[in-house]
Amino acid sequence: GSNISIDPKADEERSSMYKSILLNIIDSESNYVDWLNVLLQYMKAFKATVQSSQPVLSDAEFQTIFYKIPELHVLHSNFLENLKRHSTKWDTKIGDCFKNMALNLNLYGAFLGNYGRALDTVRKCSGANNQFAHITKKITCKQLSEQPMSLEDLLHKPVARVQKNALVLHDLLKCIPKTHQDYNSLQEALDYTQKFLDEFNIIQTKSMFPANDRAQRRLVKNSFIVEYADNNRKLRHLFLFNDVIACAKYKSSGGKTEKYTFEVKWFIPVEDIVIEEPTANPYEVSSSNIVSLKSQASNIRDQLRQEERNAEDKKIRIGRSSEKYKKRLLELESQLVLVSPNLLFKLKHAQLQKSYIFFLSSEYERMQWSDTIHTLQTTAMPPAPTSNALDIMELQVWITACRTYLIPNMGSYLLRSGHDESLLVGDLHITIHEMQGLEYIADLYICIEVDFYGHFFCKAKTKTRTNTTGTFIWNESFVIDLEGCENMRLLVYREHGPHSNFALNSSSHSLVLGKCTQQLSRKWLGPSTLEKRVEINHCELRVSLKFTPYEGNTRGVPSGKAGALFGEKIQQVC
């Protein structure tokens, strides 16, 4: 958004542009509603044949193809009618029209969840019935377009529309000052829309399946994770698609490249996932065990570095003892990856009544998994025909195909060499100063997380602040113990309070307003305080950082100092 201008002519131009964009939106929306109406007419015509003696398609095929079209037509007809009414008066309700549309985006989620299957059904019916193929290849509406459209093209219009909504909101906000009567509601509408697009991963889907951006199955979220199975902690990878969650085992493909493949162990259809309420963790690894492993790894790393220094000084090759150290270090680090997370996350298969137990390190990660699963369930596609029953071999093929596009997030310990200095060990001094750029009043706090062998742990949390003066001011300082870190994550939460009037998830937890991940590197981080400005969801956060490494004998006992959170219950700190 722009600041208030003291130039009346500039203000007038902006106001004129705002009205011009709105009138264009009304035109575009009218066209979209008309095309939805065409879809409705064809829907009614096909409905009549379903109940006849010679149906062109079955009832199940009919329901799949036209899923949620009537509801989308009602939603957009109301939106258009309200927009026209309020734009003639130019009153204070235009922003509310957009906000109400954003609050109903779960309807689009349902449509998107079914979209791939709807296209497959159109293609299957076209191949099986010439009459259906002929009718749906050339749908004409002279008032709307000289060129005929296919049913597939018409079904793609809502997909394009939901992405256009976000762009339109950006354009509107650029044209009005923060004091404008519609600013707050338009900004909130944009926040909801952006959150929806992020959850449905629409952009990522296109990049992952460039040859077929209408893929019926989309990878929505994935991550390496620790599963508790057969009385042991095991490294797994969890894949959440729009219709199924699958858990896979890592399999080394051998050789020196340390490449790996996946083997699917189990899966649950999205509609059958039950997220069990977190309880006390009976499988928690004691903090003393974790400290012991860290100390051993720390000592071996020191011995390994000493060996390498000696070899360099004497201009000789590194001996066998060095290889032993490397092997032992890898074993200890692999154990640390498994034992560090202790936050319980339980899933259950509703049909089979079988539970699966996972360990996470961050409350944010647990919240992300839960929210994404709930979103997919509330926007679920209609029940699949039995011919489309899920199959473990089919999932194996999908996951193997996805493997090419995955960026490993298992911690660089898997890939780095023995003398890699990229992981930081020492004290990170960080001050959270202030944040500017949020266009409405809210109550915010910030969590600081750092990684440890691929897991993120919450290390500090600011107090809650309100931007009554336009700026959030914290000026809070923390000293964070880094124990082999390379990334820091800043999470900005919007708390439920007197200034929060959002309806989504209002009964559950704080809303994540935005986040940013900052790579920690000795190239820019050192003993001198450095100021950084980072962008988080169109806002600017100012922080100061400095790093004091542990050198020689000054290294502290791992996790021994106050403020270290490994092994502590996350609820006590976050």
UniProtKB/TrEMBL annotation:
The protein's GO terms of the molecular function aspect are: GTPase activator activity; guanyl-nucleotide exchange factor activity
The superkingdom of the source organism is Eukaryota
**Which ranges carry the PH domain?**
218-378
C2 domain sequence ranges: 409-525
Give one Pfam hit by family name.
PH_19
Q: Which GO terms describe its cellular component?
A: membrane
Which controlled-vocabulary keywords does the entry list? Coiled coil
Domain DH residues, every copy: 17-203
Which SMART domains does the record associate with it?
Answer: C2, PH, RhoGEF
Q: Which residues form a coiled coil?
A: 290-317
Name under which the protein is recorded? C2 domain containing protein
Q: Which organism is it from?
A: Oryctes borbonicus
